[in-house]
Amino acid sequence: MCSSVIRLIHSLKDGLKLKNDSIENAIRITKYINTMSKKSSLKSTIAVSLTNYLDAGAIVAGASGLTLWQKYLGLSELHLGWLNFISANALGAAIGAIIGGFLADRFGRKFIFTYNLLVYMTGVLIVMCSVNFPMLLAGFLVTGISVGIGVPASWTYISESSEVNNRGRNICISQMSWGFGPMIILLLGMFFAPGGYLFGWVESLARAIGGADIAGDALNVFSSRVVFFSLFVVALVAWLLQRRLDESSEFTATHEKKSSIVDNIKLLFTNKIAVRTVVFLASIYLTWNLVASVMGFFQPHIYETAGGVSNEYANMLSCAGWFTVVAITFGLSFLIDRLPHKLFYVLGLVAAIATWLVIIKGVTGLGSLWAFSILWGINGGLSVQIFYALWGSELFPAKFRAGAQGLMFFVVRGLSAIWGLVFTYIYGENGEGFTLAAYCMIALLLLSLVIGVIGCPNTRGKSLAQITKERYGYDF
Known about the structure:
Layout: H1 2-64, H2 66-73, H3 77-85, H4 91-107, H5 109-128, H6 133-160, H7 167-192, H8 199-210, H9 216-220, H10 222-242, H11 249-255, H12 261-270, H13 272-305, H14 311-333, H15 341-361, H16 366-381, H17 384-394, H18 401-427, H19 434-455, H20 464-472
């Protein structure tokens, strides 16, 4: 009897030890899965964020070489306005976004990643080979359409593949890529610009392609062609990475309930909560982007005309601003999932308004130009675009999440295209209307500030499923 009791006690101890070991193993496995999930989330975020690099890179590549193309092709300020109108900065992206958003909801985020960058590379090649204004215009348009197609899918994919407490961080990483693109493109533009450190290499390449007698503006514009070639290389790498990504699990789950593009559009426009959300997000993004689109495309040109500096120095000023964007966004990535979104939203717009107050006070020298550049960089690091991308991917159900973003992007970039044309008339041939333009910019930024503060949603720390349930109920 005693020996049986002893054996029973030992077996219970062994069973308890086995149970404890199983629990410990389960905990270790769970921690490992969470760690791998975070690594996978970060890896996919970086791959998809290259879309933002190519978006901002395309805008700034055109901007940094704008004066060179103007001289080479004999373009007027109106021509420049049309280039902005149909580029990745405005109409081209608008057209692409409304197409790409609903395609991503119907056929999947991976579908966009598999094919879209092939269109981008085609557009960049057309720009590289341009010898007249129609070719240059066509290249800007094709590139812009591709940018628009990719943006809604990329922001949606990043949010859907992120953990609850890392969603804001991953959107910030995407925004850092949006800052890295211009910074690197402007550095290349500065090095390859006429008189730059690497212009000798550009000159050798130009003579090898265009003949030994190439000179003047035809020679100088090769620096811009080389910059666009760098975008082609990055697009090729991004395409190879993105086409290997797995489909979003949220899309896969939603896609089991089959619905057409038309059905999703009807659903978006007939749901009152969705319509109110579209109005809110489009309002804050539009009022901010009307300012940002002008800055993105015309900033180096503004430095050259209003500030009277060289193309090389203008690119350096812009580059410093974009470095500030990257640095501020990097810091924000550690805080955005921990502190109220409204705090950073307000700080970013205060910096933006201060940027244009510098202009109203007057460009009196390099000091004011540097202040203008750095302040706008702080705004870029805390920009409305970060919160638009984050909230836009949180506040809609997966069924029409990308489509809603595409619709808003279409409206915002389309109106930005029209504003770009209007701005050229306000600004004038030599920057004589810049002070009036600054007052217009401040009014727009104040609107973005007020609307954002009133409508700022409380989504921090909540899963996408939880947010959808709170806002729309169980129907989605």
